[in-house]
Amino acid sequence: MTDYTTILVEQRGRVGWITLNRPEALNALNSTLVSELAHAASVFDADEQIGAIVLTGSARAFAAGADIKEMADKTPVEMSLRNPFAGLEEFSRVRTPVVAAVAGYALGGGCELAMTCDIILAADTATFGQPEINLGVIPGLGGTQRLTRAVGYYKAAELVLTGRTMDATEAERAGLVSRVVPAGDLLAEAERVAEAIASKSLPVAYAAKEALRASQETTAAEGLRFERALFTSLFALDDQKEGMAAFREKRAANFTHR
Ligand code: CO8
Q: Considering only CA atoms, which residue is closest to atom 21 of ligand 1?
C-alpha cells in the first residue's frame, strides 16, 4: 500500500481513503495514477473490513482530466489495444460504495471519474466540465453518457459542445452533485457520509449499489425486475433478520455482514 507514487491510501475504521496526489499536474490522470487507483480500489473492494471508499484530490484539483501530455501523441491502436484508462472502468465497477469529495477542478476525465462514484460531495470551490472539445476530442469515459443521465440532454450538450465549465452551485442545481459544502468542511462531511454507509450491512450496501447502477444501465422495466429479485434475495441474510428484529426491539442493529 505504501509503494504508490501518485495516490495516497489510508484506512480509517471501515472507510478506505484514496487521495489523488499529483499536485504538479493538478492530479491529471496518467497511466500510473489510473493503474494505482484501480489497484487500491480493488484491494479495498476485496476487504470485508471496508464498507465505503472516499476518493478525493487536493484543495486545488480533484483531477484536471486525463494527462494531456501523456496522451497527445498516442495512436488509435495505443488508445484501444493498450488503453491507458482501462483502470478507470475497473474502478467504476467496484462493489463498495464510493464517495467522491471534490474540491477545485473536476474537468474532463476528472469529472468523469467523479461520475463513476456513487455520491459526489462538492466543495463550494469545485468546478465541473467536459472541455475535451477544446483539445480536438470528445469525452471518452462517460462524459456524454453519465453526464447526460445526471443533468439531462440539453445541459450536457451545452457543456460537451462548448467546453463551458460550471461551478458547484450550478452543478448541484443541475443534479450532478449530491451536495455542496463549504470547502473547509468537505473532508469531514465525506467522512461522515462514508461512515454512515459503512455502518450498514455490507452485502446490503452492495445490493443497493447494484440496483442503483441498474437504473443507469438498463430499461426501467428490467431495472424494476432486477431490484425486486435483489430485494427478495436479501431475506436470506442474517442482517435482514437482525435489522428487522432490532426495529421491533427498539434497539440499534448489530450487523455482522452476513
Ligand atoms: N494534463 C496534463 N497536465 C495538466 C493537465 C492535464 N489535464 N491539467 C493541468 N496540467 C498541468 C499544467 O500543464 C501545469 O503544468 P506545468 O506547470 O508543468 O505547465 C500544471 O498542471 C498546472 O496547471 P496550469 O498552470 O494550467 O494551472 P491553471 O490554474 O492556470 O489552470 C486549468 C488550471 C484551467 C485546470 C488548466 O490546467 C487546464 O485547462 N487543464 C486542462 C483541463 C482539460 O482540458 N481537461 C480535459 C483533458 S482530456 C480528458 O480528460 C479526456 C478523458 C478521456 C478518457 C478516455 C478513456 C478511454
A: 25
What number is the ipTM of this complex? 0.97
Any idea what DSSP says for residue 201? -
Closest ligand 1 atom to residue 26 Cα is: 21
Q: Which residues contact 196 (CB under 8 A, 6 or more apart)?
A: none
Domain of 184?
7-198
Enter the pTM of the model.
Answer: 0.97
Query: How many folded domains does the chain comprise?
Result: 2
Q: Which residues contact 250 (CB under 8 A, 6 or more apart)?
A: none
Tell me the residue type at 54: V
- Tell me the average confidence (pLDDT) per consecutive run of 10 residues in the chain, 258 residues long: 89 98 98 97 97 98 97 91 90 97 98 98 98 98 96 98 98 98 98 98 98 95 97 98 98 96
Mutate to test the pocket of ligand 1, among 24, 26, 82 (most ligand atoms within 8 A of CB): 26
- Name which residue sits closest to atom 19 of ligand 1, judged by CA: 25
Within a domain: 254:
no
Three cell numbers written together for 50 = 471496508
Same domain for 177 and 209: no
90 is catalytic: no
Cell of 237: 441474510
36 is catalytic: no
Q: What is the DSSP string of 97-165?
A: -EEEEE-SEEETHHHHHHHTSSEEEEETT-EEE-GGGGGT----SSTTTHHHHHH-HHHHHHHHHH--E
Is residue 188 part of the annotated active site? The answer reads no
